[in-house]
Amino acid sequence: MVFERFLNGFLPIYKRILRISIRRKSIIISMIVQPILWMVVLGKTFDNILGGGPFGGDYDYLTFLACGVITMTVLFSSLFGGMTLLFDREFGMMKEFLVAPIPRSTIPLGNGAGIATRSLFQAILVLLLALVIGAKLELSFYKIFPLFFAIILVSLGLFGLTAAIATRIESFEGFQGVMQLTAMPLFFVSGAIYPVEFLPSGLQDFAKYSPITHVSSIIRYYLIGEEAAHFNILWGSSHANIGLFLSFVYLGIFAITLLSLACWAFKKQTL
Amino acid sequence: MFTLVEDIIVTEKLTKVFNETIKAVDHVDMQIRKGEIFGFLGPNGAGKTTTINCLTTLLKPTSGKAIVSGFDVVKNPDAVRQRIGIVFQDSVLEDRYTGYENMILHARLWGVKKEVAEERIKELLELVRLTDRAKDLVRTYSGGMRRRLEIARGLVTRPEILFLDEPTLGLDPTTRHHIWEYIKLINREQGITVFLTTHYLDEAEHLCERLSIIDYGQIVTTGSPSELINSLGGDVVEIIGEGDVGLAVSTFKPESYVKNVIVRQDNGLELTIEESEKSLPKIIRTLQETGYNALSISLKKPSLDDVFIACTGRGLRDEEASDFEGVKKHFVMKKLSRR
Q1: How far apart are CA B32 and CA A131, in angstroms?
Q2: Which one of A145, A209, B21, B153 is least enclosed by Cβ atoms within 10 Å?
Q3: Domain residues of chain B, as ranges?
Q4: B237-242 mean pLDDT
Q5: pTM more than 0.90
Q6: Cβ–Cβ gap B106/A271 under 8 Å
């Protein structure tokens, strides 16, 4: 009975996010154009400046950056996913969900699952574009699933964060301000566009705590190899496998904690 | 056999206070009978929407009790939600869904089985005449179409009560009349109790079997529109004429149908009378006998506006222009109710 009510809320809310995302043509176009810009303009240009194997390994900058663009895509898509909730509260469907006989937790969970799925699709799209543009990414069946899992975890966590903020914040301007303040620093220290090892030491310590840095490492581990992942900086261990495992645990805790926070915030939400 | 008239909504001292100071709803007691169309009439900021939000479990009352469809809104909100339909004051639809998809989404949320939902949606779209637009995105709909869709959507779950918050706000007169017809139809044919709020007097008069006038969060008076209007004492006949008004006054005063006589400064007469349609010919005859030469006779039937003035000491229509406090309170309440 409780489970049935949960599904009555979760499934339609989840489907709605995907359906309205597909129907937004501007979103789809920017989803394709943005990563192409990053990889073609920034990636190819820096390839010319830095030459092959700039960071020690035998991978070029475009290959390095392609992984970073995947991280970036997931970061921004998930963080701004919380914007949907704010939009719903101001102009749309939130009242319909709040007055429905469904558990309140299905609102953040259904939306979160939808945003995570969308982020994953965007990541796959960037991956395919990267291959077309010429990034030398190693793909295999066994690597792809843990990679997807990591992306889903970080996406859920980031969504949980914005969903919780969205229940407390009054205006779009405020929300956007908070998001800019959160997203930009996280992105810059994540090692998405340059390796974490080049960060000033104080920032490196900060970067270690950011889940974005961890997912960035995991993506490089699977798509390029151990030498591009820098787990030794994150965990101080020379064993990449231990670092990988710990990063997954860290992302898992991040996702569960922030989703729980979002569910708690929604339980108290009245209108 | 006799049928018992049940009360489907009962509140006792229902109170909602925002920010510990603003009493949006203040000790409201009401009993709404099963199957009736009941209205809340009052100006903006009177507490109508807050009352609906409390009854529909969207807001927790500060104190007091509310039983909706047999369940306490605080103790058993899910049971209440399962049994009600709501049309909110502002449009709550997914713009990027078609009308049909919006209905399906609603049915899913309330746990209505797909086959059952499809059947009902088909009927309801027919009822509100949206069948041919059902496959279009809602963002292409006009205001009236959106309202009709929302009313139809509220009925997919076969609710026992339908809450309508300002159902015709911002709609043109023809569309308003159509919406009224739909509301009456569903009430009559499906036996659904309708609770609506409005600040339109004609809407309340046209639709409601009973209504409460609410002002500053308190119920001022309750009754059927005709009861409330009759409670004012009757219709007023204004006579302007020349000649000796004194004889006319002394002739009218003892008549049983005349409840009050006032002589105006311009030598005119104001008679408060009962059953004006029958009394008017008598008045004209009497006037001729008294030699008071009537130049014009006009009949004023009191409206709910007059009831409102009699109860609160001010008009309903000029509310927005003159009562800044009320409007300010309205906006503060809108903002606070989100938290």
Answers
A1: 67
A2: B21
A3: 7-229+311-336, 234-300
A4: 84
A5: no
A6: no
